[in-house]
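Response to reviewer comment R2.3. The reviewers asked that we include at least one raw input/output pair. We reproduce the pair for HD domain-containing protein here without editing.
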Amino acid sequence: MEIKTIIFNSLKYIEININEPIKAEDIAKNAGYSLYHFSRIFKKQMGLSIMDYVKERRLIKASEEISNGKKIIDIAFNCGYQSHSGFTKAFKNKFGFSPALLRAFSFQINSLGGNCNMSHVFMNYTPIHSTKEELYEILIKTIDKNMLEYDNEKINKAYELACIAYDGKKRYSEDDYVTHLINVAILLSEMEANEETVVASLLHDIILEESSISFEEVKKEFSNRTIDIIKGVMEFNRDDNIIDEDVIMIKLAERLHNMRTIEFMNESRWKEKAKETLEIFLPIAVKLNNEKIIAELNDLSVKYI
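Raw output as returned:
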């Protein structure tokens, strides 16, 4: 049998068993070779070791599943990773951005009427006019449900500071302003963002607030990375060449919650906001070089021209 045929059959075997705990030995045995000889043949033909190729295929398949709404932690386990963080590191090494950012963009595309097949996720609205206490309970339950590796004490500290900082401030709906921030944090935990991003989302407006909580006090309580994210959100400029994906995720989640709560607007106003959203995030998708997201956003932009 020709080498090309052997490799083709092996690739087919890998695809059929991509969700199974296959080993290099299994693939070599299926090809009729010893592991030593088949490993040399495979690497010469494919430029990758057998298991590096399997890993690549699993990550590509994982990106498709994330876009279709599957939870990152479930995908991580299916791909053979033992933790959310381990999978995230491998995914980011492969694609240059985190799986959570892909999930965030998919949420936004779905909210604008795109084809990410995430309606079952997107429709998880929090109840209208929920209190901050009710929303915080939902946030903690969402973190637990998604098996996110957060320090809940830090989440709670950020929540408490936000409640103090925004005490008495209201949204246009007459809800406490802090409920918007908690909703953003809930969305980020649904997107399976990292802990520092969720913490920052609860405090990202605090620099502009006049309250008993100073920014210096916030800096004492949280990591330098969290502070950098907060500053990044406040100084966000879509034309910047440097992209901080944690900042982008907060902006996406914030816009998504705002889009969910503009039902009082007429259709033309809603479309104006949707078009504005596309104008902000399409250039970012281009910078990230994510062809799937670029195509989705380009298709959506036609609706609002």
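Residues 267-288 form the longest helix (22 residues). The chain is about 70% helix and 0% strand. Further pairs are available on request from the corresponding author.
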